[in-house]
Amino acid sequence: MGTLSYTATVSIDGFAADSDGDFQWSAPDDEVFAFHVERMGPISTEILGRKTYLLMRYWEHEPADDPWGPLEKQFAQAWRDLRKVVVSTTLTDSDLGAPHTRLVPELDLAELRRIVDEEPGEVEIFGPTTAAVAIRAGLVTDFRFFIVPKLVGGGLRALPADARLDLQLVEQRAYGDTVYVHYRARR
Questions:
Q1: Distance (Å, rounded) from C-alpha 125 to C-alpha 52?
Q2: Cα–Cα distance between 4 and 184 in angstroms, integer?
Q3: pLDDT tens for each residue of 22-75
Q4: pTM for the whole thing?
């Protein structure tokens, strides 16, 4: 039986993307990227929505015109090794290029519980829209945020506005101007 976690990079005012949908302001520097590689160790499965899956497909094949460095290669290998559950009503099985990837049209609470119960280790739900139902239902055990010193003024909230959480700080680190915080839900 696994546990469910949620990780997001957020602006200081709580957004994962700005009002134009841009999130380039949140790109990690080398030190933060190295920590992302390290923190993927206990993760066995990623649950992600269509947009996030299509964005992360970048890590399935090294681009010929822009070769990856050692850390990028390490991250890509870790990403490819993960089991993935893609939530989408518009993608088809033929759209999924990576092994260990399956498609579910809807992520209701029963399906989410089943995935977490069946997977070993940590299941990470990736993307604020996909994670919202799990956060509202109190199914997420661990919350990890990379807070960047930007105010974007609006956009896609990292956490649902109507969520009610009681969290305990487990870990914190500073990477230059970026602060990493890990909270665990109080039960």
A1: 11
A2: 11
A3: 898 899 999 999 999 999 999 999 999 999 999 999 999 888 888 899 999 999
A4: 0.92
Question: What top-level class would CATH report for the domain 16-185?
Answer: alpha beta
Neighbours of 26 (CB within 10 A): 21
Task: Provide the token pair at 26.
Answer: 């949140």
Percent of the chain with pLDDT over 70: 100
CB–CB of 4/126 below 8 Å?
no
Q: How far from 160 is each of 43, 96, 119, 137, CA to CA, in Å?
A: 23, 28, 25, 11
Q: How far apart are CA 36 and CA 44, in angstroms?
A: 14
Strands 15-18 and 155-157 turn out to be antiparallel
Q: How many other CB atoms are found less than 10 A from the CB of residue 86?
A: 25
Tokens standing for residue 139: 């199914």
What is the β-pairing status of strands 122-126 and 3-11?
parallel
H-type alpha helices, the chain: 30-39, 50-56, 70-81, 109-118, 128-137
How many residues appear in the chain? 187
Distance CA 160, CA 151 (A): 18
Q: Please report the pLDDT score of residue 97 as a whole number.
A: 76
